[in-house]
Amino acid sequence: MDRIIDGNAIVYCQGAFNTPNGKTAHGLVRFTERYNVVAVVDSNYAGKDAGEVLDGKKADIPIFGHLKKAVDFARKKGNPAKYLVIGIAPDGGKLSKPAREDVLQALTFGLNVDCGLHDFLTEDKEIRKTAEKYKCTVRDIRKPPKRSDLHFFSGEIEKVDCLKLATLGTDSAVGKRTTAWLVVHGLRKAGFKAELIGTGQTAWMQGAKYSLVLDSLINDFVSGEIEHAVVEAWKNEKPDVIVIEGQGSLMNPAYPGGFEILAAGRPDYVLLQHAPARLEYDGFPGYPLHPLPHQIQAIEVISGKKVMAVTVNHEEMKAEEVPAACEKITRETGLPATDVLLDGPEKLLESIIPLIKK
């Protein structure tokens, strides 16, 4: 971690940590350059370490059942929190009434609030007045930019002369962003310049320099904003590799995504994130996941590019079950399969590095 952009933060994830609805909190516990995470709030895991709950690895980030306890802990430790970051990502992006009350309480404690939900806190009169009273800022990360600041697709992306990878998924909340960051960090560690193009609120919260919140944009400008982020990263950083974070999945009934990234980001190859134990689309019982080979075929037909590897999400699986699951995927698809979160990106990098343009 090279920098902390905004300071100490408490991540609010009441009732959702270690579930798909806690994916923003999970990302911040695993990695962020925007904040120094000092605590997580979720009464389900009070008293435990967030890293141990999430990945079985101690992160020195304690979980508290109530916001006040987290605030008091940070102050006593000499690391008073500056921000409350909303770490829940429920379907529809709505803030519950109890969560809203906790936001109001956070403001009375002098905490700034960052929120990536579709409920814009800056449009809540009581929250706005409370923030003004206690001299706090409230940032709605998902609030759309002004139309005058948006970009239309121009074709300039064809000038980008480096390897471009897209991390797409067979479902939503399946680990696309986490894999993208692990690939970027692995490439940097191996001596290459790599940049992540964030396409959701969590990547921004993690400090992605080149990012947009795809699902908050007016449709006409989605392709242009993806292109603009890629082109700006290329112009300013001259990276060896650009990794574009995917959103949703091509066939998810509620979150169809990836078309825009394939069309506008124009990746050279695709990494496909997949959870072998997941049988139905996340949050939608009765909607079975399309078979993995079917999803690979759809991506390749649409983009004209190859899926180069399958990256595995081991949810609902024991660690010892993962190698067999990877072998099964390879037999079914002919593609290498690896669990980047569990085993690291090194095996995947063996396939990526030879593709880097000299």
Overview of this protein structure:
The structure is a single chain. The longest helix has 19 residues, at 219-237. Helices cover 35% and strands 17% of the residues. It has 13 helices and 13 strands. It is an alpha/beta fold. The chain has helices at 23-30, 50-55, 67-76, 97-108, 125-133, 176-189, 201-205, 219-237, 259-265, 292-303, 322-333, 340-343, 346-352; strands at 7-12, 35-41, 63-64, 83-86, 112-115, 138-140, 163-169, 194-198, 210-211, 241-245, 269-274, 306-312, 337-338. The protein has a seven-stranded parallel beta sheet with strand order 9-8-10-7-11-12-13, sandwiched between helices. A six-stranded parallel beta sheet has the order 3-2-1-4-5-6, sandwiched between helices. It starts with 6 loop residues before the first strand and ends in a 6-residue tail after the last helix.
Architecture blueprint of SSEs:
Blueprint (H helix, E strand, L loop, with lengths): L6 E6 L10 H8 L4 E7 L8 H6 L7 E2 L2 H10 L6 E4 L10 H12 L3 E4 L9 H9 L4 E3 L22 E7 L6 H14 L4 E5 L2 H5 L4 E2 L7 H19 L3 E5 L13 H7 L3 E6 L17 H12 L2 E7 L9 H12 L3 E2 L1 H4 L2 H7 L6
Parallel strand pairs: 1-2, 1-4, 2-3, 4-5, 5-6, 7-10, 7-11, 8-9, 8-10, 11-12, 12-13
Helix pairs in contact: 4-5, 8-9
Strand elements, count: 13
Residue windows where pLDDT falls under 50 for at least 5 positions: none
- Based on secondary structure, the structural category is alpha/beta
Number of helices: 13
Largest sheet: 7 strands, parallel
Strand content: 15-25%
First-last Cα distance: 27 Å
Kindly state the percentage of residues in helix.
25-40%
Mean pLDDT: 96
* Radius of gyration computed on alpha carbons: 20 Å
H and E string: EHEHEHEHEHEEHEHEHEHEHEHEHH
Q: What general outline do the C-alpha atoms trace?
A: globular
Side by side, the strands of the main sheet go: 9-8-10-7-11-12-13
